[in-house]
Amino acid sequence: MGCCLLVGILAASPRLILFGLWLFTDYLTRASVAFFWGFIGFLFAPCTTMAYAIAQNSFGGLQGWGTVVFAAGIALDIFIYSGGRRSRSRVAA
């Protein structure tokens, strides 16, 4: 049960941070993230959406280190989803 709670908190944290960025700052707007794509990113790929905003605002887009940050966001989303799937399969077995 504790493992499921930990996975749930880890999966929700990027969404909470992304929601806070949208609500209290213009960080996503400066990165040219449209509402539709921001919402899709919020639902399915929150780490990738944050990484894209960081790459656009801090590194001048998807070039050089911006690409590295964006790839790290994609990797984090994949790890979050695969970790949740792995813990669900252990409980079912």
Structure commentary:
With about 90 residues, this protein is mostly helical. It has one domain. About 85% of the residues lie in helices and about 0% in strands. The chain contains 5 helices and no strands. Helix 3 (about 35-45) packs across helix 4 and helix 4 (about 45-60) runs antiparallel to helix 5 (about 65-90). The two termini are about 15 Å apart. The model has no long low-confidence stretch (mean pLDDT about 85).
Summarize, please.
By secondary structure, the protein is an all-alpha fold. It has one domain (2-92).
User: Fraction of residues in helices?
Assistant: over 70%
- Sheet of most strands: none
Instruction: Please indicate the percent range of residues in DSSP E strands (runs of 2 or more).
Output: under 5%
Structural class: mainly alpha
- What is the helix/strand order? HHHHH
- Please tell me the total number of domains: 1
* Count of distinct strands: 0
Number of helices in the DSSP assignment: 5
Keyword list:
85% helix; 0% strand; 93 residues; globular; mainly alpha
List the SSEs and their pairings.
Layout: H1 2-24, H2 27-30, H3 35-44, H4 46-59, H5 65-92
